[in-house]
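1st attempt posting a full record on here, be nice pls
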Amino acid sequence: MKTKIKPFIGKWSIVEMEAWDQEYVNMEVPGHFTFIKDGTGEFQFGLVQGEMDCRVETVDRRKRIEFSWE
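the predicted structure (as tokens):
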């Protein structure tokens, strides 16, 4: 069941990543994910940036964002 992205809209800071330390995450700009109400978004951390196609899914009665990216 798909739900609306509204609760997730905005810029979210990356505060921890399993594969990289925070110094790398914030290398160029503060690492972040940005979700837009039309179901798109963008992210940047370290030397990686991209655009996303986002969707909210409900799994075990909890909402989460899933996305594909370029």
